[in-house]
Amino acid sequence: MNDEILRLLHVRGDFLSGEEISRQLNISRTAVWKRIGKLKDEGYEIESVPHKGYRLDPYPRGKIYGWTLEQAFAELNSRLFRKLIFAETLDSTNLEAKRRIAAQEEAGGMVVVCEMQTAGRGRRGRSWASPAGSGLWMSLFLRPDIQPSHAPMLTLVAGMAVRNALEELYGLDAFIKWPNDIIVRDRKICGILTEMTMEDLEMSGVVVGIGINVRSGAFPEELKDIAASIAEESGERSPDRAQLLCRVLARFEQYYETFIRTEDLSALREAYEAHCINIGRTVRVIAPAESYEAEALGIDAEGGLRIRLGDGTCKTVTSGEVTIRGVMGYGR
């Protein structure tokens, strides 16, 4: 019943009287008042004005409306993604996807989205701040028919999808920081974490976790200088997360189909390098046993970063071996 009230308010887009809600849902006005109060307690921003009724804020500071995600997802009519799962709170969308896979609930083409993560994770086990109302936290579960060694390439595919979505929707001059970050003005706006799922010692699928900072003001103190948000960078008060979700999925599907045809990044390499901020710059390569500077030349067909050392020799490093840092800043 609460969802029905929310839907009525959302469709109206303005004030809707308690009497009209009562009539449409066949409940008393007292019941309407009580349910509106409960929705407010849950964090929905509903304005109440005597003689006018109730109005749902279309730009909520603290909520993502699940039915708007579902409606946008249905309209996307994706060939690749067939199911959307939304939850208010999860420990991690990647972990939720893995649980459903382990329970043999999903055959692939699943998207998991939540409003808040309590144990969001980034690359190398780092925590990822993901409070309610601040971002788009999502995981894609796929069952590609590829070699396990090729699964990490999907991180780069996802990076291209997010970068393009940010440019197309908000005009942001976004760049990819190899292998798994999207940055704007030298600050991180998105992180990507790709993990394989195993069954009987064989790869059963791939989970691609994507965390996009949508609204500012929720960054921990230690991240304020290196984190960015769509709202802050675009000037848009409350970016539509349903629209963003579907644009990312659409672009991912486009690049994924190309990737699957070749089973590598050979057909996507030129487009990737055109927006990779590392290319042509000096980077710091951080490996378990040493740290050194090198010039980033580009990526190879398997998604490795080709670098030139100070003595002129060239080699390729992979995301599983090293971490790359800018010399002049987070991305530069």
Q: CATH topology of the largest domain, which one?
A: BirA Bifunctional Protein, domain 2
Strand content of the residues, in percent? 25-35%
Which homologous superfamily in CATH is the superfamily of the largest domain?
A: Bira Bifunctional Protein, Domain 2
Give the biggest beta sheet.
7 strands, mixed
In angstroms, what is the radius of gyration? Answer: 22 Å
Helix/strand class: alpha+beta
Give the CA-based shape: elongated
Give, in spatial order, the strands making up the sheet with the most strands.
3-4-5-9-8-7-6
Determine the number of helices (DSSP H or I, runs of at least 4 residues).
9
**Total number of distinct structural domains:** 3
Termini separation comes to: 52 Å
How many β-strand runs?
Answer: 14
Uncertain regions: pLDDT < 50 for 5+ in a row?
Answer: none
What order do the helices and strands follow?
Answer: HHHEEHEHEEHEEEEHHHEEEEE
CATH architecture descriptor text of the largest domain: 2-Layer Sandwich
The level 1 CATH classification of the largest domain is Alpha Beta
Q: What do the pLDDT scores average to?
A: 88
Q: Percent range for helical residues?
A: 25-40%
